[in-house]
Amino acid sequence: MTRGPSDAGHQGAAALHGGMDATTAPHRIPPEMPQYGEANHVFEMMQNMLEQLLIHQPKDPIPFMINHLQRDNDYVPKIVILGPPASGKTTIAMWLCKHLNSNLLSVGNLIAKEFSSLAADARRHYQKFKTVPSMLLIRLVQERLSEEDCVRRGWILDGIPETREQALMIQTVGIVPRHVSEWPPTPWGPSPRAAAPRSTIVLSAPDTVLIERNLGKRLDPQTGEVYHTTFDWPPESEIQKRLMVPAGISEGETALKLLEYHRNITRILPSYPKILKVIPADQPCVDVFSQALTYVQSIHRSNAPFTPRVLLCGPVGSGKSLQAALLAQKYGLVNVCCGQLLKEAVADKSKYCEMILPFFEKETAVPDSIIMKVLSQRLDQQDCVERGWVLHGFPRDLDQAHVLDSWGYKPNRYHLMYKPPPTMEIQARLLQNPKDAEERIKLRMDLFYRSAADLEQFYRQAITLNGDQDPYTVFEYIESGIINPLPKKVP
Predict the structure, then answer these.
(1) Model pLDDT for residues 156-195, shown as the tens digit of each residue
(2) Predicted TM-score of the model (pTM)
(3) CA distances, 302 to each of 19, 42, 44, 163, 298 (Å)
(4) What distance in Å separates the CA atoms of residue 330 and residue 479, rounded to the nearest whole number?
């Protein structure tokens, strides 16, 4: 079985982890270490560097790694778009290039390249046989990708690879896309994968639609832009006059190309088992582009070790305690309830008992400085550091959020719960304690909502959710934020 570059990176990373796991001594890891690793993407950096070392196998690895880090191009666009004739892949590829400020690579512009002996050889072969040998095409791609603009701004391959042979050759030389797009999917193609580390887009349309669509294709010889007589006709008369009918778009020629495409695509797609995204092509181009752009800009789930530090904020009765218990039970997180911690500190007659007890007796708020001493004692314990935690009951306002942050406790998942059930239902739920009268509950809710906007602003990645739903619906939503990356917020 042929192994791709990504396999090499994963194996190397696994070997590193295996070396640590093989030791018998317990690891007491300070909480600052995993927080630093997550904040600075250390795992991803090391994995990318190891992957490049195994692909290129430089004689002197140190200068190679220094050069790789100085390039700082691990996250530039690296996209492959595949699809049959008239599926719109070239149009979408060009729009993506403009939007992402990246570089478009197609067979046409690669063989048209000036001052390249490889391109000259490819042109001669294409003029004679109407095709480019696979080895020559891949060498052309390698030559183009080594140029500075592709290194700095990334690339989009339009219609490459064309065969499984080319797909394997591309992997062998270390060309690894983050996204692969195919328009449209064949009936035998793989289904879309959610939150995959690498991804593929597929647009679907029946062959009959593609043949009909291809007949209306028109080409601007000056800009290379592709237009259509029905779906995408340019309003400028100057452009209309210079449009040409491209060669090879007759019904018979298109049918033969579709047959060849279907024969090849079923063997290409298994080369990208975890990077396939399907988008229907039989819809307006703008909608296709919107879905493609959203996908290529999405954050994929990292393979980095991840320790959840979940913060649940919300008014009284919004279900924070239940959601925290469900998360703790399913994922082995430590359930940290601030109020319960303070009560336990008094009940156990801990060293903080005398500090807390007077405030309990007077029924006044415990100062933040005392709360943080009790909280830090619990969050610094090894089970919290290793397994992660879910915190609720603190912070309740912006000042407390600043205090928590200043002590170095930085949640990486935030959920702001709102809109609890109506007051009577809350009262029925909370009437276990005689002090939970309706007026008291209203006061506590008012206090929370005064601070909610500030908390949401402080925790910019906070995900708000409606607490007035079935508890397990709420749980599924919170759970998705733990196992998947947080979505980007639109400014």
Answers:
(1) 999 999 999 999 999 888 887 876 655 554 333 333 333 3
(2) 0.62
(3) 21, 11, 8, 30, 12
(4) 10
